[in-house]
Amino acid sequence: MFTLVQAASKTWRRLQGANQLPRIIEGVIFTNGVAKTDAITHSAA
């Protein structure tokens, strides 16, 4: 099993945008890597 993981790890790539994880947890929706803002829910009443 160790050898399989070692072989697979050679093709793994690092996640880009790890700094966006807190925004994802907050529920921000991303489309093609850009935060999608919903004008209806963010507009002032």
Termini separation comes to 58 Å
H/E element order: HHEEH
What is the helix tally?
Answer: 3
Helix content: 40-55%
Radius of gyration from the CA trace?
18 Å
Strand content: 5-15%
- Number of extended strands: 2
Major beta sheet, specifics? 2 strands, antiparallel
Query: What's the structural domain tally?
Result: 1
Instruction: Report the uncertain regions.
Output: none
The global form is elongated
Q: Which structural class best describes the helix and strand composition?
A: alpha+beta
Lateral strand order in the biggest sheet: 1-2
Mean pLDDT: 78
Describe this structure in words.
- Strand 1 (29-31) and strand 2 form a beta hairpin.
- Strands 1-2 form a two-stranded antiparallel ribbon.
- With 45 residues, the protein is of the alpha+beta class.
- The protein is elongated, with a radius of gyration of 18 Å.
- The protein has one domain (2-42).
- The protein is built from 3 helices and 2 strands, in the order ααββα.
